Amino acid sequence: MTPPTTTTRPEHAGPGTRDGRSGRPRLPGAALPAVTVLGVLLLAELVSRLGVLPTRYFPPASEMFVALAGQVVDPSFWVSVGQTLQGWGAGLGIAVLLAVPVGLALGTVPLLYTAVRPIVEFLRPIPSVALIPLVVLAIGTGAASKVFLAAFAAFWQLLIPVIYGVRDTDPVARDTGRAFRLGRFGVLRWIVLPAAVPYLATGLRIASATALILAVTAELVIGVPGLGGAINLARSAGAPDRMYALIIATGLLGWGLNAALRAVERRVLHWHPSHREAAA
Amino acid sequence: MLELRSVSKTYGSGAGVTPAIGEVSLTVRPGEFLTVVGPSGCGKTTLLKCMTGLLRPTSGEVLLDGRPVTGPPADMALVFQEYGRSLMPWSTVRKNIMLPLRARRVPRPERERRADEALAEVGLAGFADHYPWQLSGGMQQRVAIARALAYRPRILVMDEPFASVDAQTRADLEDLVLRIREAHDITIVFVTHDIDESVYLSDRIAVLGPSPTSVRELVEVDLPSPRDQVATKRLAEFGELRTHVYRRIRRDEAGSPPGVASTAAPAPGSAGEDAERVGSAS
Amino acid sequence: MTGRWLRVTLPVVTTVAVLAAWWFGSLGTESYYFPSLRAIMDRFVEVWLFDRFVTDALPSLWRLGAGFGIAVVAGVGLGLLLGLSASWRRATEPIVEFLRAIPATALLPFALLVFGIGDLMKVAIIALVCLWPVLLNTIDGVRGLDHTLADTARMYQVSGARRLLSVVLPSAAPQIMAGARTSLSLALILMVTSEMVASTSGIGFFVLDAQRGFRILDMWTGIILLGVLGYLVNLVFTLVERRLLRWHAGARADTASAR
Ligand SMILES: Nc1ncnc2c1ncn2[C@@H]1O[C@H](COP(=O)(O)OP(=O)(O)OP(=O)(O)O)[C@@H](O)[C@H]1O
Ligand SMILES: [Mg+2]
User: Fold this and answer.
1) CB of B48 closer than 6 A to ligand 1?
2) Residue of B nearest to A15 (CA)
């Protein structure tokens, strides 16, 4: 899954470019994407059926979807989905609970940030998967390992945006808060936190994607039960159609989680300029 | 040479339509200095963009030497009103000026010579290797002008090019443009807010009405050439012209008393000389 | 004055303090899983300087570089195409949206199946996964081209390849680099994971193999090496980015101070 970076950019009703050159006749609305999706699926089907690519590796698309349908009615598939979601959710939740207070502290106390910065800068880029062997030894091969890895990786993705968000608080707003005698906590709660929320929201989407990657990785490498393990099992069992079906399912899961977070973000951040413009 | 035939322009469609140009017919004569004055937001920039082929008119046509203009012609240059955003922040001043010349396949030594010359002319000789964002607004504006000069266009179109320079620099730049026009024999179309400037610079002034705009009057300026900042501005004719243009614009800009305005309903899109503005949405 | 002095010395002090605490705190440790830093470092020198470095670290870095490089080149190229053509973008959008939503490592079994367990598989999976952030950010960057700048290019007859190289690409560069940075973290994850899942060389293989053989010291040296490499790779990226986007930092500081 690709952690998103920047997002909404309002379409400019710009002069010269969007104007006046309608060009070739276009397919209406959703027709073009639908045509390409169908085209790609059809091509995959043909390529496999005609033996251009070996069926052993690339089963016809129709078989993948048959297998996917088979999975959807299979309770054990939903157990796997639940296990993966559990690892994702617990990991992300723990990361939020740790990263927000730590980020607020580091963001509001510059001296503290200066002090721990080299440690943060060093720990952050470490590929979290490098810890897998250690985690296996120290925690074991159960669901707790998955949660730890997801939380560890997501933590850094949240911490940095929260620090930046807090440090980016408009000084005028902060002074206004002080002038109104909001107190240290009041300023934090009413001024600093809302200002950091947009950063947190973006960080959250990235962290969510990362947590899902780590959950799947733990399942794949350590063998913690879940979708990742099921995919690998399908491969080693020589059932490529099931493997592809599960990969598609995992993709849909990732897509769904991202879409859900985006929807929440739009709800919560409707006042933020990026969403205001996009809504207009 | 450059002819606008019943050009009109409406932005957007559906609920968000903004008529910007009502109907404008105008011919730019070869070698002349034409200034365009009009109230803010009346559609001057839009008119220039139609003229230079950056925008397609909604109706009517633009002809250059009798041929319809469908995109920016190669021998036209435009100094954008948003001069700052028209400069590339990733390139130095010199590279900004040289890029159009590179596109025109001017050989490198020639490119550099022209860029340095143009920079010297606008008084920025020492800033070739600066980045645009290291310069003040007025300096950026002069870089944009230098880029147009180095391009050596046959027709130079300028959209409020002196809006953010101080009075002294402004006077210098005005004289620079006049000098360049003499030296290279180029045709200039020049938008300004400043009535003094329009009278001082031009052979003809197109006075535009409020949005959606049309040409309210074409004023011939018969002041002696070459112009001089002190002598020309002291002439009686200068004062008369200035007053005349000022009155023409004032009538639009200040708005007439409500009683008068409500009786004079403008014909939409007409080029009517006396189309008064009634409580417009702008 | 004291502020600046603190800002320079404090990070050094804390770094030294943390390392010292680890070093001395672990000196007499009996713990099997958490050996002393001194023992780890002794072992590190034995293992990684330089036999294993050549047989395991270099192949890892090679795969990382090749996969990441392919992803950046392909991502920028495709991103330019999709960014400039609305119909291509619309046509491919659902496919791109879906493929990039697949959690990166879920594709590993697919890569294993199709490409086997060799280097090709690792380079392919890294490239495949790293493609999306670069691609999507390039599209965004290309579409974000300032309208005045686009009109300027048009007005001055800057078109075709020259427009692409001198106007579109530089203007999209900050976005592209942001995407590449995301890709780089993914590349590191995939490098390690692919070596853990199926390999006979590489640092990822080394650490997992050490853990499975209960060679705890070896495992620790591998983890530390991965940490150092992750840090260094990011450092190099940051330096390159700073060099490429020097103008951007300046331009931003300028608008910020104008506010
Ligand atoms: N891209 C656009 N989309 C919609 N409406 C526009 C657009 N550009 C300009 N307008 C509208 O067209 C009208 C004329 O705008 P224009 O920029 O041409 O005015 P102007 O005379 O150049 O003003 P100024 O003197 O302030 O530069 C205005 O009412 C403006 O709101
Ligand atoms: Mg304007």
Assistant:
1) no
2) B55
